[in-house]
Amino acid sequence: MKDSDCVEFLQWALPRLHLRWPGYRKVRKQVCKRIDRRLKELHLPDVATYRAYLDHHPPEWSVLDSLCWIPISRFYRDKGIFQLLEREVLPQLARNALAAGRRELRCWSIGCASGEEPYTLAILWKIALEARFPDLRFEILATNVDPHAIERARRACYPTSSLKDLPEEWRARAFVPTSEGLRVTREYRERVSFELQDIRTATPDGFFDLILCRYVVLTYFDDTRQQETLARIEKKLVPGGALAVGSTETIPPGMTALTPWTTSAKVYRKGPVRPATPTS
Predict the structure, then answer these.
(1) Do 259 and 76 form a contact (C-beta atoms < 8 A)?
(2) Contact, 246 vs 111, CB < 8 A?
(3) Rounded CA separation 236/137 (Å)
(4) pLDDT tens across 100-127, in order?
(5) With left for phi above 0 and alpha for psi between -120 and 50, is residue 156 left, alpha or beta?
(6) What is the radius of gyration, based on Cα positions, of the chain?
(7) Strands 258-260 and 267-270, how do they pair?
(8) Full-model pTM
(9) How far is residue 29 CA from its own chain's centroid?
């Protein structure tokens, strides 16, 4: 399949799935390879024939939708955001929780790929912050629409290349070598639970102090679905909670309940009041 043919097809199909072509421009080769495999499975000669097939077989749209999910991630991706979480955001959220009489800090990683993001968060908390808040239980729920990605995340084995951005000390403390690759050790794995879930149609039970929604909603969804999904996500944040997005992403206009935590990183706060100045 020629690249130009696939691009034309994606520009036709993605809006019908409430997805944005600009988000797929740089990763289209992965999607095109999957579509090409699907054509061979269906014994179809080209994407033009596939368009006609979609018109006559509506359930196939769900298959195409599943081919368009891109599980790209690595540990400590966008280190500036994780540094802000470590330095300012998580300590403030921890103080807020304790002041409210809670003994649990809940985090939600949306579109968690193969677990790199939630495990990074677990490692950060254990190594950098747990000693400061010994009375606070730190829990992470990670969700993804792809069952194969969830299975890989639960195995928690990764190639060395996935850890290239992680601080060396953290890598040494949190991973052990196995025949499959470097595996996250149990003390970090047990802080993360995984759930198969489509953010477009469902959200987890309960509320969260921190939600990470990076390179999914604001990268791939169209404007209407962005607004609808972000509104549901915002409702799952506790007052004063934080939402982290990707370094190249920005919350769209109209999300008045969310204001920037700082001007230098893509973390937003629920509510108009700035976090209190830390006290010694």
Answers:
(1) no
(2) no
(3) 19
(4) 999 999 999 999 999 999 999 999 999 9
(5) left
(6) 20
(7) antiparallel
(8) 0.92
(9) 21
Structure tokens at 131: 């000693």
By the 10 Å C-beta count (0-12 exposed, 13-18 middle, 19+ buried), 94 is classed as buried
Q: How far apart are CA 15 and CA 196, in angstroms?
A: 25
DSSP H or E stretch at residue 16: none
For 203-236, what is each residue's pLDDT tens digit?
Answer: 999 999 999 999 999 999 999 999 999 999 999 9
Burial of 195 (0-12, 13-18, 19+ CB in 10 A): middle
* Residue 229 structure tokens: 């999904």
Written as one letter, the residue type at 40 is K
HSE at residue 218, side-chain half, CA atoms within 13 A, is 21
Distance of CA 230 to the CA centre of its chain: 13
Burial class (CB in 10 A: 0-12, 13-18, 19+), 220: buried
Alpha-carbon span 76 to 277, nearest angstrom: 27
If you ran DSSP here, which 8-state letter would residue 87 be given? I
